[in-house]
Design brief:
This protein has 36 helices and 12 strands. The chain is an alpha/beta fold. The strands form 2 sheets. The chain has a 9-stranded mixed beta sheet with strand order 3-2-1-4-5-7-6-8-9, sandwiched between helices.
Amino acid sequence: MSYLTPEAKSKLSSTIRALRERLLTDLQNAIESTYRLSIKTLNKAGLAQEQQVKRQRLEQWLDEQSRSQGKSKKQELEIRDRYLKTAVKLAAATLLNRLVVIKQMEAHGLIKPAVLTGGWQSRGYREFRDFAPDLCKDETEGYGTLLQLLYDELAQELPGLFGNVGVTALFPIPASTLRAAIEALDAAELKDVWLDDTTLGWVYQYWNDPEREALDAKLNGGGKVEPHEIASKTQMFTERYMVEWLLHNSLGQMWLAMCKKHGWTAEVEADGTLARLEARRKEWREKREQGEVAIEALMPIEPGIEENWKYWVPQPLTADAVTHAPESVRSLKILDPATGSGHFLVIAFGLLFTLYQEEARHRGENWSDRQIVESILENNLYGVDIDPRAIQIAAAALILKARLLSPQASPKHLNLVASNLQLASLPADDPALVELRREVTQATGIPEKLTNQIVYALQGADYLGTLLKVDTAVDAAISEYESQFQQAVQGDIFAGFGEQKPDFNFQQTKASLLDKLEQFLSRCTSGDDLGLRLRGEQLAAGIRFIRIVRENSYDLVIGNPPYQRTSKMADAAYITKNYSKGKADLYAAFLERGLQLAKVGGLSALLTMRNWMFIQQFTQIREYLLENFDLRTLGDVDRGAFDEVPNEVLAVVMSVFQKVSFNGGMSVAMQPTPLEDNSYDRQRTKRKRAAVLLQIGRFEFSSDRFEVIEEKPLVYWWDEQLFRIYALNGNQFSARCHRYSSIFDSMGASVFPPSNAETVAVMNSNLGRYILQSLNPSIHFQVGDVNRLPLFHIESADEIFTQLDVAFTEHEAARETSVEFKKPGTSAWNYAQEWAQTAVDSEPGTPLPKYEPVYEEPPATNFVSYAIGVALGRFSTNGEGILNQAPATALPHGILYLSAYSEKDSLEHPSCKPIQETWHEYGSIIAKGTQLRKWLRLSFFKEVHLGMYESRPIYFPLSSPRKNFVAFVSIHH
């Protein structure tokens, strides 16, 4: 159950952002006042002994960081300052995360009595104050001491969060800062937030939002994302309803397949849960259509088993799904390849817990809560992220979830890893690396050069995470060695051939190499990256990483991978080389990688941008996915799916692929809101979430349908008839009509068909537009999109085009900014377009609608603008249109001068008589009670001319600061 309503998230977001600003400022000031760092000489700072020792520790750490990277004294100082700010930020984030974890534990009753809830009025503090009054005489009245005792207790299990976290322990927390933080988190509006199992992750995102926004600004300014910035740029927390939809339609569907495989009847089917949900959906949809319930209102869900199936979409259970279903939920392996703060894994944890309990009932066995929880953490859940802070938060969130399900659970290990192995800093003569090269050569014969290649490849783990193909690097080194090994041996004519080596065993060599590599990584990487103290010994991060990223290992790969165009990355060479089909964007590379990591028959369920389904740039990855795998379900939530991202750029889709070839079965897509819905308001996400729950917009399709369209866009909503029309007509044309010889480029690309009339009619028909928008839902249409549009016959196209040509000629003659302009007048162009639209969309055999034009009067300001053009010599008075040369009757030098202090200005010139006459006729309509001279000075340019000429003016007003004197200068004279 989610306690994070949109309103609660908004409050949490504003609270965390405000606390971030306060904490960073206060801690920076506190460290200066405590250690007096601005006084460069320690002996002159006048510090007490304790502060002196702590300052020395801090300065030693800063010196080590700056010396290792700086090339000059100035660079060292800059790097030193940057690391100090980083340490301040880490200390502030550590404090906040500690308080949030404690708040959550108190909310669930895992810490009694409460200390943070109620703050200085809490029961825990009152008891401490009564018990130890002598410890309550500091600035915090003993509250800080009590909090530290609580930290020390929690550090027994979570040392990475509550222990002495590096230099951050040297940062003092002012009493006023501590009080402000505790009071902010104790706000009444946040009371239920601490009960949600994803809150810690949301806190992490809200804390990082300012950094991500700064990187967005950097990209908008033409910069690129550096490798070390990828984590900050691509962190985006997933709405809970999308996580649950993906899990219910992957893990849930897998469970139904497991039940069928074993001959069990799933309890959600046996007890009627799925049937009840479907019946309630039908009833709720009817109420929605009749206006009895608001369209953003969520259908009620009963607590318990319904929560775990509410987003499951009824869908075919394929033979492949049953064949490849895991034998037991205990052996099922789930990987989030870009874990972040663990949102997907935490929610999967709860779902797995209920599936374990059900399997035990089917088997007639008794599995305790502790056994289940430990098994889930040790065997089922896997995650990798490039940000170590995210992994620590994910680990803490999973442990917190474990405590709620079984307080006694004590897992031996967690299958999470932060992939920042930091191998790049290893010198070539590092003892562990020297030993690795020697041992590999002795054990396998592989030369040191190839071993170095593997270690060099592992350096990319810091910013590539699961995209790093460790298997590929190892296989390539062995294959290169094998090719050398198998080269023909030249014998001696007298001595014959020397002793022959035995046959090369690839798998045996690989196993030996991986064993040596793991020994090396155990010496070079630590096992404390999770910040947990577990019952078993945690494997070193490097070993966990290479084991977790092995291909063909997972029943389910699920997550929300990062979205980042590789063209905006400073270093995208690895992606381009190793993910050529998905190289345009990181998320597309993950679409490919997810299916490499999945077992045969396994699932990849990812939330990504939706443009991979349509646009030309993603043709390769789209064709690869459709030709090699079985697309089972789509959740096309399009724009407005995220509460936190109120823009039109982020349009997303949830896809579930099975790692088997397409077998001809039907797939299901959900389109909760119509694609043409361009509504844009803060309730949009609520409406979309409600529609997803009600399963509005269901489509069934066969993946082989798309083969009739070049580049295979996933227009899943097309019906069979439209596919047949497309297949029969093909794609023979593309066109756009120009009235004059023109220069065009990629933003106005043109081709030249045999019939302009037929082509223009087809392109502007509703069917033509529908096809084009289906093939490319993005902002710009490309030549390739139009090439795919079939040329179907439009009756009377020539007559329609001729009538439009006449109406447009009249319209252009009356439009001042047109090259065909004569003078202002009425226009029937709007009517003509509506008439033509009706005509081209008429059923075959229907006569042309009668053409009865309705003429519209132009704005009154058009006549004044024309009169000004006549006075300045741009237009003639008799309707000749634009003049190449100003007549003698025009204003001298093409300047219209106006004064607020004298009537002896240009308006008195005979050339301005048309302006005076026009104002006499239309002035009361344009600006009643305003004099012509004042209106021209203050209003004409801004309110009329700029808009008419689309901010590309032809008359420029040179004016005094208050516009008491204005001279309009024609750029043509």
